[in-house]
Design a protein that fits this description.
This protein is mainly alpha-helical. The protein has one domain: Orthogonal Bundle (Arc Repressor Mutant, subunit A), CATH 1.10.10. Helix content is about 70%, strand content about 0%. Helix 1 packs across helix 2 and helix 2 crosses helix 3. The protein is globular, with a radius of gyration of 12 Å. The two termini are about 20 Å apart. The relative contact order is 0.15. The mean pLDDT is about 95.
Length: about 80
Amino acid sequence: MSTLDDKIRKFCAEYGLSPQQTRIVAAMMAGALTNEAIRRRTGMTQGALSAHLWRIAKKTMTISRVELLYLFYEGRRGE
């Protein structure tokens, strides 16, 4: 059985996320859901974080963090 880290790496590779974006997704999956919590875990500036969050949403075709979490754990609706 895969570990959560393996699942995160596979998910991020599937959607073409960068290493920085992968760190953000990993932080979110570890419970950091606010910008401040993600920034503390990743050490990113607010500007960099906002840009990466926008790119993550675009690449995964999600519009919210809740939808991203759903996609990560459940896959696309209708799959």
